């Protein structure tokens, strides 16, 4: 959808006093359609989370293409990127790049660090992990439940990529496949998990300053957002607090029912509910999409529809 760079993007020397920050602004009107802009105007500031000069990335319409652009800028393979966070260099899963990027957001790419293997016994049915993936073949740990089996193992941390389970390669598998594999390990058995942690060396002051505004011009009115859509498309929309609250709620339901977290999947579910007035039509829309492969239960469909109606009625904002 976006024009590609003909030449390699340039890097700026790093400056601790950079003035690019995330501007929060509420949009209370109707959602604007995709903004017809010149896509070459869309440039995002990017740094490596462990420290680097600032790069400008553009010309992408999905996460894989974004990783490719970042890798080109910093001259390493795209497979080195575990995930990206927005407006923080920390491994903060609340700031994880998912299905959208604000036009003022600053991207931090987290590269592969050291690998580690841990042998553990599955003493409970649930290990206490919430798993997400980066949209490019790596599933990783987004949350560890306090008091769970995993919580008591300091070598396993949030942000760790699950590379292998009992010698079986998990690279290229979606989060729900990894979660299913873990769930099917018999209680009482011992297994080995091979993890790759994000590169941790770096410096403490590379996050954008929150007290100053970016001098980068936004596109459109209000808080613009680049949303990744199903099928590899991307659209620029104004911020929609109702939709964002609904997607967050859908994500929390997916975590409760399936042990996975995926903003893009949650967005796709939300889009199935557009123009639907009852749970039956919503269920039909899911069954007639590629979400049908998940085999959502009736109970899960009802919970998801409840999140949609709660968001529409303003009970989540």
Protein described:
The protein has 317 residues and is α+β, with helices and mostly antiparallel strands. 23% of the residues lie in helices and 23% in strands. The protein contains 6 helices and 13 strands. It has helices at 63-74, 175-183, 241-258, 263-272, 279-287, 298-312, and strands spanning 11-12, 44-48, 54-57, 81-86, 100-102, 107-121, 129-133, 139-144, 161-165, 168-169, 190-198, 224-228, 234-238. The strands form 3 sheets. Strands 1, 2, 3, 4, 6, 9, 10 and 11 form an 8-stranded mixed beta sheet that branches. The radius of gyration is 20 Å and the shape is globular. The two termini are 32 Å apart.
Keyword list:
317 residues; alpha+beta; eight-stranded mixed beta sheet; three-stranded antiparallel beta sheet; 6 helices; 13 strands; disordered N terminus
How do the strands and helices of this protein lay out in sequence?
Layout: E1 11-12, E2 44-48, E3 54-57, H1 63-74, E4 81-86, E5 100-102, E6 107-121, E7 129-133, E8 139-144, E9 161-165, E10 168-169, H2 175-183, E11 190-198, E12 224-228, E13 234-238, H3 241-258, H4 263-272, H5 279-287, H6 298-312
Parallel strand pairs: 2-6
Antiparallel strand pairs: 1-3, 2-3, 4-6, 5-12, 6-11, 7-8, 9-10, 9-11, 12-13
The proportion of strand residues reads: 15-25%
Radius of gyration (CA) equals 20 Å
User: What's the SSE pattern?
Assistant: EEEHEEEEEEEHEEEHHHH
Secondary structure tally: strands: 13
Unreliable stretches, pLDDT < 50, 5 or more residues?
1-40, 203-222
Mean pLDDT: 80
Number of helices, counting only DSSP H or I runs of 4 residues or more: 6
Beginning-to-end CA distance, first to last residue: 32 Å
